[in-house]
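Lecture notes, unit on protein representations.

Consider one protein chain, 94 amino acids long.
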Amino acid sequence: MLNLDIIDYVILASIKNGVKKYSSIFKNCKKTNAGKFREHVNKLEDLSFITIDSNENWFVRNTNPSIILKKNGVKFVEDNISKIRECWNSLDNS
């Protein structure tokens, strides 16, 4: 069983809902500092759920990259859509 928390689900939900830029996803994670957010992004990358869009130039990749769902990430989102929706909706109420 994966040990994901609400921030991980919010990151995945953001990408699934078309929010691709690192800084825009971070804004959706209002109660998380930049260091913790980076840890969550790294964890999701290690799980092969997300990756940085390699089509962007070096500067963009290193300042405000686009994050895309990998095949495993898409499958996880589809399999856990109700949990992800619940986490995403909890943002609207906070």
